[in-house]
Amino acid sequence: MARLGSETGDVQVVNRLDVEDVLSSRDDECRWLDVVARSMPRVRAYIRRMSQDGDELADLWAEARALAWSGRADLLADPCPIHVMIRYAREACRNRMVTRRHETRLDEVTVAMSPNQDSMAVDSMSHEEALERQRWSVRVLGRLSPQQRLAVDYRYRWSWDYDYVAAASGSTEAAARVNAHRGLRRLRAIIANDPPPLLAHEDG
Predict the structure, then answer these.
(1) Position 66 pLDDT exceeds 80
(2) First CA to last CA across the chain, in angstroms?
(3) What is the CATH number of the domain that holds 175?
Protein backbone atom coordinates (compact mmCIF):
# COMPACT_ATOMS: atom_id res chain seq x y z
CA MET A 1 0.00 0.00 0.00
CA ALA A 2 2.85 2.32 0.85
CA ARG A 3 4.30 1.63 -2.55
CA LEU A 4 0.95 2.34 -4.22
CA GLY A 5 0.69 5.59 -2.28
CA SER A 6 4.14 6.54 -3.45
CA GLU A 7 3.21 5.79 -7.03
CA THR A 8 -0.02 7.74 -6.63
CA GLY A 9 1.94 10.68 -5.27
CA ASP A 10 4.32 10.56 -8.22
CA VAL A 11 1.40 10.59 -10.62
CA GLN A 12 -0.09 13.62 -8.83
CA VAL A 13 3.21 15.45 -9.05
CA VAL A 14 3.48 14.67 -12.77
CA ASN A 15 -0.12 15.77 -13.37
CA ARG A 16 0.49 19.03 -11.51
CA LEU A 17 3.57 19.71 -13.61
CA ASP A 18 1.61 18.98 -16.78
CA VAL A 19 -1.06 21.49 -15.77
CA GLU A 20 1.58 24.11 -15.01
CA ASP A 21 3.22 23.51 -18.39
CA VAL A 22 -0.10 23.90 -20.16
CA LEU A 23 -0.90 27.13 -18.33
CA SER A 24 2.58 28.47 -18.99
CA SER A 25 2.30 27.51 -22.64
CA ARG A 26 -1.03 29.30 -22.95
CA ASP A 27 0.42 32.40 -21.31
CA ASP A 28 3.39 32.37 -23.70
CA GLU A 29 1.07 31.96 -26.67
CA CYS A 30 -0.98 34.98 -25.59
CA ARG A 31 2.18 37.04 -25.14
CA TRP A 32 3.44 35.89 -28.53
CA LEU A 33 0.19 36.86 -30.24
CA ASP A 34 0.35 40.28 -28.58
CA VAL A 35 3.93 40.85 -29.75
CA VAL A 36 3.09 39.78 -33.30
CA ALA A 37 0.02 42.03 -33.40
CA ARG A 38 1.92 45.07 -32.09
CA SER A 39 4.80 44.55 -34.49
CA MET A 40 2.60 43.97 -37.56
CA PRO A 41 2.69 47.59 -38.89
CA ARG A 42 6.48 47.78 -38.62
CA VAL A 43 7.00 44.34 -40.17
CA ARG A 44 4.60 45.01 -43.04
CA ALA A 45 6.30 48.33 -43.75
CA TYR A 46 9.64 46.54 -43.81
CA ILE A 47 8.65 43.80 -46.24
CA ARG A 48 6.96 46.34 -48.55
CA ARG A 49 10.49 47.54 -49.31
CA MET A 50 10.96 44.28 -51.15
CA SER A 51 7.65 43.89 -52.96
CA GLN A 52 4.35 45.64 -53.58
CA ASP A 53 2.57 42.46 -54.70
CA GLY A 54 -0.25 41.61 -52.31
CA ASP A 55 0.15 37.85 -52.53
CA GLU A 56 3.90 38.02 -52.04
CA LEU A 57 3.50 40.37 -49.08
CA ALA A 58 1.07 37.90 -47.50
CA ASP A 59 3.51 35.04 -48.06
CA LEU A 60 6.40 37.00 -46.55
CA TRP A 61 4.29 37.99 -43.54
CA ALA A 62 3.28 34.37 -43.03
CA GLU A 63 6.91 33.27 -43.26
CA ALA A 64 7.98 35.93 -40.76
CA ARG A 65 5.27 34.72 -38.38
CA ALA A 66 6.44 31.12 -38.79
CA LEU A 67 10.01 32.13 -37.99
CA ALA A 68 8.78 34.11 -35.00
CA TRP A 69 6.85 31.08 -33.74
CA SER A 70 9.86 28.81 -34.11
CA GLY A 71 11.97 31.33 -32.20
CA ARG A 72 9.27 32.38 -29.74
CA ALA A 73 11.48 31.70 -26.71
CA ASP A 74 14.02 34.28 -27.88
CA LEU A 75 11.26 36.61 -29.00
CA LEU A 76 9.52 36.64 -25.63
CA ALA A 77 12.78 36.92 -23.70
CA ASP A 78 13.96 39.98 -25.60
CA PRO A 79 13.26 43.36 -23.95
CA CYS A 80 12.48 44.84 -27.39
CA PRO A 81 10.61 42.06 -29.23
CA ILE A 82 9.62 44.27 -32.17
CA HIS A 83 13.28 44.44 -33.19
CA VAL A 84 13.36 40.65 -33.11
CA MET A 85 10.27 40.54 -35.34
CA ILE A 86 12.03 42.85 -37.81
CA ARG A 87 14.96 40.43 -37.77
CA TYR A 88 12.60 37.58 -38.64
CA ALA A 89 11.06 39.67 -41.42
CA ARG A 90 14.55 40.37 -42.74
CA GLU A 91 15.32 36.65 -42.69
CA ALA A 92 12.07 35.88 -44.53
CA CYS A 93 12.97 38.42 -47.22
CA ARG A 94 16.49 37.06 -47.54
CA ASN A 95 15.13 33.53 -47.89
CA ARG A 96 12.86 34.73 -50.66
CA MET A 97 15.76 36.44 -52.41
CA VAL A 98 17.74 33.20 -52.44
CA THR A 99 14.97 31.65 -54.54
CA ARG A 100 15.42 34.37 -57.17
CA ARG A 101 18.91 33.50 -58.28
CA HIS A 102 18.22 33.64 -61.98
CA GLU A 103 18.91 35.91 -64.91
CA THR A 104 16.61 38.91 -65.08
CA ARG A 105 15.76 41.04 -68.09
CA LEU A 106 16.64 44.66 -67.47
CA ASP A 107 14.54 46.37 -70.13
CA GLU A 108 13.11 48.77 -67.56
CA VAL A 109 16.58 49.67 -66.28
CA THR A 110 17.88 50.58 -69.71
CA VAL A 111 14.72 52.53 -70.46
CA ALA A 112 15.03 54.47 -67.20
CA MET A 113 18.63 55.45 -67.93
CA SER A 114 18.26 56.22 -71.63
CA PRO A 115 18.18 59.84 -72.84
CA ASN A 116 14.71 59.48 -74.38
CA GLN A 117 13.02 58.04 -71.31
CA ASP A 118 10.10 60.52 -71.33
CA SER A 119 8.98 59.42 -74.78
CA MET A 120 9.51 55.69 -74.47
CA ALA A 121 6.10 54.50 -73.39
CA VAL A 122 5.75 50.88 -74.42
CA ASP A 123 2.12 51.40 -75.45
CA SER A 124 3.27 53.80 -78.19
CA MET A 125 5.58 51.24 -79.83
CA SER A 126 4.68 49.27 -82.90
CA HIS A 127 5.44 45.56 -82.96
CA GLU A 128 8.55 46.16 -85.06
CA GLU A 129 9.75 48.93 -82.75
CA ALA A 130 9.25 46.73 -79.71
CA LEU A 131 11.31 43.95 -81.30
CA GLU A 132 14.05 46.39 -82.24
CA ARG A 133 14.08 47.80 -78.71
CA GLN A 134 14.27 44.29 -77.30
CA ARG A 135 17.21 43.39 -79.55
CA TRP A 136 18.96 46.58 -78.47
CA SER A 137 18.35 45.78 -74.81
CA VAL A 138 19.75 42.25 -75.20
CA ARG A 139 22.79 43.62 -77.02
CA VAL A 140 23.48 46.28 -74.40
CA LEU A 141 22.91 44.05 -71.39
CA GLY A 142 24.98 41.28 -72.93
CA ARG A 143 28.03 43.45 -72.40
CA LEU A 144 27.62 43.24 -68.64
CA SER A 145 28.66 40.22 -66.62
CA PRO A 146 25.81 38.09 -65.21
CA GLN A 147 26.59 39.27 -61.68
CA GLN A 148 26.58 42.90 -62.77
CA ARG A 149 23.24 42.47 -64.56
CA LEU A 150 21.64 41.00 -61.45
CA ALA A 151 23.16 43.57 -59.10
CA VAL A 152 22.12 46.53 -61.25
CA ASP A 153 18.60 45.17 -61.64
CA TYR A 154 18.00 44.37 -57.98
CA ARG A 155 19.65 47.52 -56.65
CA TYR A 156 18.60 50.23 -59.10
CA ARG A 157 15.33 48.95 -60.51
CA TRP A 158 13.90 47.44 -57.33
CA SER A 159 15.85 49.51 -54.76
CA TRP A 160 16.72 46.45 -52.68
CA ASP A 161 19.19 46.70 -49.83
CA TYR A 162 22.58 45.23 -50.58
CA ASP A 163 22.05 42.26 -48.28
CA TYR A 164 19.03 41.32 -50.41
CA VAL A 165 21.06 41.78 -53.58
CA ALA A 166 23.77 39.54 -52.15
CA ALA A 167 21.27 36.84 -51.19
CA ALA A 168 19.57 36.96 -54.58
CA SER A 169 22.79 36.84 -56.58
CA GLY A 170 24.61 34.33 -54.36
CA SER A 171 27.45 36.69 -53.45
CA THR A 172 28.72 38.61 -50.46
CA GLU A 173 27.33 42.04 -49.64
CA ALA A 174 30.66 43.64 -50.52
CA ALA A 175 30.68 41.91 -53.92
CA ALA A 176 27.08 43.00 -54.51
CA ARG A 177 28.06 46.62 -53.89
CA VAL A 178 31.00 46.40 -56.29
CA ASN A 179 28.94 44.68 -59.00
CA ALA A 180 26.11 47.19 -58.71
CA HIS A 181 28.43 50.20 -58.83
CA ARG A 182 30.61 48.94 -61.67
CA GLY A 183 27.65 47.52 -63.57
CA LEU A 184 25.72 50.80 -63.44
CA ARG A 185 28.77 52.82 -64.50
CA ARG A 186 29.48 50.46 -67.38
CA LEU A 187 25.83 50.35 -68.47
CA ARG A 188 25.68 54.15 -68.63
CA ALA A 189 28.84 54.23 -70.74
CA ILE A 190 27.46 51.54 -73.06
CA ILE A 191 24.14 53.38 -73.52
CA ALA A 192 25.97 56.66 -74.20
CA ASN A 193 27.78 55.00 -77.11
CA ASP A 194 24.88 52.79 -78.19
CA PRO A 195 21.66 54.73 -77.51
CA PRO A 196 18.26 53.09 -77.85
CA PRO A 197 16.56 53.18 -81.25
CA LEU A 198 14.19 56.08 -81.79
CA LEU A 199 10.48 55.51 -82.02
CA ALA A 200 8.72 56.50 -85.23
CA HIS A 201 7.12 59.59 -83.71
CA GLU A 202 10.56 60.74 -82.47
CA ASP A 203 12.11 60.94 -85.93
CA GLY A 204 12.87 64.41 -87.17
Answers:
(1) yes
(2) 109
(3) 1.10.10.10
